[in-house]
Amino acid sequence: ALMDARGRFLREGQPYLVLGLYHVAPAEFASIAKAGFNVAVTAPPASAEELQATVQAAREAKLAVAVPLYPALQDSTAAEAALELVKAQSGNLGIFGWLLADEPELKPAQAGALPDLYLRVRQADDVHPALLNLGPGADLAVWAPLADALLVSLLPGKDERPEAVGKRIQTVAAALRESNQSWIGVLPAGWSGYIPTTARARSYLYQLLAAGAQGVFWFSLREGKWDLTKAPLWEDLPKLNAEAQELAEALTEAQEWSELEVSVKGVTARGAKRGPQAWLLLFNSTDEAVSGYLRVPEPVAEAEYLDGGQLKVNNRTLNFEVPGAGARAVRLSLEAKPATTPPP
After folding, report:
1. How far apart are CA 149 and CA 133, in angstroms?
2. Exposed e or buried b for every residue in 321-340, given b needs 16+ CB within 10 A?
3. Contact 20, 215 (CB under 8 A)
4. Calpha distance 100→176 (Å, rounded)
5. What is the tens place of the pLDDT at every residue in 83-123?
6. 187 burial via Cβ count (<10 Å: 0-12, 13-18, 19+)
C-alpha cells in the first residue's frame, strides 16, 4: 500500500524520494531529520516495546524507520517472534518497510529461510514493503522475487573512480528494468575505511538518480569511536539531500534534453526540461577541476548551480566549472519565446 504501480514509494498518497541513513539510534532522529533525511535504518528490535518506542520517536521527528528482521532467519523461534512484531505494527505509518536480510547471497543458511519469511511477512502486513539489502555482486534477477524493493550496495573501494561506480549503477538499472523492480542505491557516507569527498559523493548520487533509483541510503558504520557527525561529509549531507530532492522532482515527468555540446573532453552532460525550466547534470571523469563551455538547445535567461553560484550565460552557451572526479547540477530558467503575430 505504500508503493504505487510504478514502484515509487508513497507518503500520504504522494510519491517521494527516499533519503535514508544506516545505523541510526532514536537519540539521533531529530538531528538526521534536520539534515534532510526521511528514513532511518535502526538496529533489529529486541522487543515489541522497544520497536513501538522507536517508531513513536521517529514519527515525532517526521521520519520513518526501516526495521531489520535479520534475526528471524536464524531459526523458527526467532521467525515467530519477528512475525508478531510485524503483525503488531502492520498499520503504523511510522515504518518505512521491513528489511528482511542483509546480503543473503553471502549467507546460504539465511538464504534458505528467506522465501518463507518473505511470504509470511507479506501475509502479516500488506501495507509496508519487504526489502532486501544486496551486495554489488548479487544476481539481482534471482533475489528480486523475494522482496518488494531492493537496496543495492554500491560502496566503492577507496581508490575506485566515480565512473566505475557509475558502470555498476547502470548494470543494476539494466538488470531490474525488465522486471520493473524498485530499487534504492546504498552509497558511502563514510566510516574508518573510506570517507568520500563531497565531490565524489555528489557524483555517485547524481548517477544514481539519473539511472532511475527511487532513493538513496547513505551507509555509515558505527563501530568503536567512529562518529558520522564528526566526519567531513556530514556537514555537506544536508546540501546533497536538498539537491537530490530537487533533482528527483525535476526529473519526474520531464523531457530528456538532448543535443548538448560540451567543449572539453572528460566532461559529459545530461539534461531534462519541464516547462520553462531545465536541469543539467555535469560529470567530470578527470582528476583535475575542469572549466569549459556547454551549448544547449534553447536560449537561457539565467543559470545557477544547485550547490550555489551563478553561471555565465550567453544565449545558448553556458560557462561551467566542475571539480575533479566530481559532478554538478545546474538549474536553468529558459527565455520565453516571443509571441508570434498571426498574419492579417
Report:
1. 9
2. ebbebbbbbbbbebeeeeee
3. yes
4. 19
5. 999 999 998 889 999 999 999 999 988 888 999 999 999 99
6. buried
